[in-house]
Amino acid sequence: MALKSGLYTILILFMFVRTDAQEIDLLILNRDDQQALARIDQLLESEPTAELYFKKGLVLKKLMNYEQAVLALKAATRTDSTETVYLEELAETFAALGNYTDAALWLQRAAHLDPVNLPVKAKLGQCLVNLKKYDQACEWYGQIWCRDSTNLYYNRYYAFAAYQAGKADLAVKLYEQLVNRNSRDINVYLNLATVYAKRKENMIKGVIACRRGLNQFPDQPALLLKWGDLYFQNKDYANAQFPYERYLAKNDSVYEVLRNYGICLYHTDFEEPALQMLNKCYRQNINDPIVNFYIGACYNKLKNFPESIRFFELAAATAIPGFLSDIYHHLGQAYGQQREFKKSIEAYQEAFRLDPSKVELLLDIATTYEEFDSNTTMALNYYQIYLKEAGEKATRADYALERLKKLKEELFFAK
Fold first, then answer.
1. Cα–Cα distance for residue pair 313/261, rounded to 1 Å
2. Per-residue model confidence (pLDDT) at position 203
3. How far apart are CA 400 and CA 392, in angstroms?
4. What is the gyration radius of the CA atoms in the chain, in angstroms?
5. pTM surpassing 0.90?
6. Residue 411's pLDDT band (cuts 50, 70, 90)
7. φ and ψ at 301, to 5 degrees?
8. Contact predicate 380/404, CB 8 Å
9. Mind giving me the DSSP string for 15-36?
10. How many angstroms separate the CA atoms of 185 and 168, rounded?
């Protein structure tokens, strides 16, 4: 009888404890969060357990009171430092505040306590990606891969970490597997195309990745732009036109797309349509040296040399140093077409000063001097400088040698 009485007492106490927990859970379930917090705080005064602190943290997190949630969850981990659920929840709360550094530390503790917990390792990998520690993220995702190589969710993040870490072979392998599983993640196709494009010989594979993505997402703007940009960056302007045209047919006229499309039209000998595109860009930004340069080049092809010179001069005035040499080179050609030889030579000389590696400019100066008042002496001088500076790399050495011979004969007979 005494034994039964003792068991009955224990059962009543057990039911009492369960009733407190159930009461709190019911309040949370019914979204009576403030009442739940009040009841939890009341119980904590008499019995500060890790579970109560944990539930308090969950409620505060639900209310987006993340700072107070951190304090409650830290109290839970101090009370019980071996429960990985507490560590994981604390880490997620830090991550919600953008504090990925502390989030990663708590997730590392959880991962070491529970090495087979793949979701914890995956969350740690995501934190490390946010911290741009891509190599470390790859290591953790690699551990997941060894246990589960088929999980689409994990593999997406593993591929991205490898992509960002510069592990091209691994990234391609992972992204190809995702593509073969008909992934509905647009970034899978975009990133695969980018990885391929970094190796010039695989540019076509990058284009194929874009087109495979377009099979899943017809006329998807980002994929069309990536397709066009891959050809454009490789100066394959003819093939770049089609995806740009498809993009512009259904999407806003983005400045960079108009500019690139206009450049493509220029290189494929559609000067007037190119001017239409480039003039739209010019109206948006009159200080873009690339736009000004190609407008000048279009006018040059159309033999409107005054306008060509105006835009080449504007391009030179607005250009950053890397483009100036090419701009002055074309400006020199435009002045030459107008038979303004003095200005033409000055532009060529400036182009060579800005980029002494472009030795062919010396030959342009020499030929211009021949036309400019038949200045044989200066022409002869520049032909000789060209042959000396260019050496074996001279692409027009035969022409220069022939002109040298002729000019020397002229000078001889002139004496």
1. 23
2. 87
3. 13
4. 35
5. no
6. low
7. -65, -35
8. yes
9. HHHHHHHHHHHHHHHTT-HHHH
10. 19
* 111-138 b/e (C-beta count within 10 Å ≥ 16 → b): beebeebbebbbbbbbbbbeeebbebbb
Burial class (CB in 10 A: 0-12, 13-18, 19+), 33: middle
Provide long-range contacts, Cβ within 8 A and 24+ apart, for 364-367: 364/329, 364/332, 364/333, 366/400, 366/403, 367/403
What pLDDT does 10 receive? 39
Q: What is the pLDDT of residue 100?
A: 96
DSSP three-state, residue 350:
helix
Q: Is the dihedral of CA 250, 256, 262, 268 positive or negative?
A: negative
H helices of 114-185, in order, are: 118-130, 134-147, 152-164, 168-180
Q: How far is residue 117 from each of residues 58, 84, 144, 162, measured CA to CA in Å? A: 21, 9, 9, 22
Q: How far apart are alpha carbons 129 and 123 in whole angstroms?
A: 10
Tokens of 98: 């953008």
Over residues 31-56, the pLDDT tens digits come to 888 988 888 898 898 889 999 999 99
What DSSP designation does 201 have? Answer: G
- CA 320 from chain center: how many Å? 22
CB crowding 65-90: b at 16 or more within 10 Å, else e: bbebbbebbbbbbebeeebbebbbbb
Stronger pLDDT, 213 or 355, i.e. the higher one:
213
Query: 100 and 130 in contact (C-beta within 8 Å)?
Result: yes
In this model, does residue 223 exceed pLDDT 60?
A: yes
Which pair of structure tokens corresponds to residue 175?
Answer: 């992204």
Residue with tokens 């008042």: 373
Secondary structure (DSSP) of 224-275: HHHHHHHHHHTT-HHHHHHHHHHHHHHS---HHHHHHHHHHHHHTT-HHHHH
Query: Where does the pLDDT of residue 317 fall: very low under 50, low under 70, confident under 90, or very high at 90 and above?
Result: confident
Cβ 96 vs Cβ 69: under 8 Å: no
